[in-house]
Amino acid sequence: QVQLVESGGGLVRPGGSLRLSCAASGFTLDSYAIGWFRQAPGKEREGVSYISASDGSTDYTESVKGRFTISRDNAKNTVYLQMNSLKPEDTAVYYCVAIVWDGSRWNPANFASWGQGTQVTVSS
């Protein structure tokens, strides 16, 4: 199984910033496309941002475009999600997972497992 560990969440005021980390252990991350997903209480899990393995191309859900930036540091075996201008509606548990392209969209890979996630709370 390809399992990743998320960290970096916390409580932040609206307009603030956080940087989430997604670390791999026991395998090298550079062969995998990685996605960040989030799940708010009472809502379905949704994809937030994706980064490919081949050329590092990125994609974002509309609600976070211009505010979030996904990146990867293969030397550190880590993928990051820089979140700026945070809003209360960004409050959720954030997860990272290996993803695969099905021709039209990114999906969590069947061989991947979900970690514990990291809680992000945006509140004044």
Structure description:
By secondary structure, the protein is mostly beta strands. Helices cover 0% and strands 48% of the residues. It has strands at 4-7, 10-12, 18-24, 33-39, 46-51, 58-60, 68-73, 78-83, 92-101, 106-108, 118-122. Strands 2, 4, 5, 6, 9, 10 and 11 form a seven-stranded mixed β-sheet that branches. It has a four-stranded antiparallel β-sheet with strand order 1-3-8-7, with no helix packed on it.
Topology:
Elements: E1 4-7, E2 10-12, E3 18-24, E4 33-39, E5 46-51, E6 58-60, E7 68-73, E8 78-83, E9 92-101, E10 106-108, E11 118-122
Parallel strand pairs: 2-11
Antiparallel strand pairs: 1-3, 3-8, 4-5, 4-9, 5-6, 7-8, 9-10, 9-11
Mean pLDDT: 94
Report the β-strand fraction as a percent range.
over 45%
User: Tally the helices: what do you get?
Assistant: 0
- Low-confidence runs (pLDDT<50, min 5 residues)? none
Structural class: mainly beta
Task: Give the biggest sheet.
Answer: 7 strands, mixed
**What is the oligomeric state here?**
single chain
Shape: globular
| Rg over CA atoms | 14 Å
**Tally of extended strands?**
11
H and E string: EEEEEEEEEEE
Question: What is the first-to-last residue Cα distance?
Answer: 39 Å
Classify the helix fraction into a percent range: under 10%
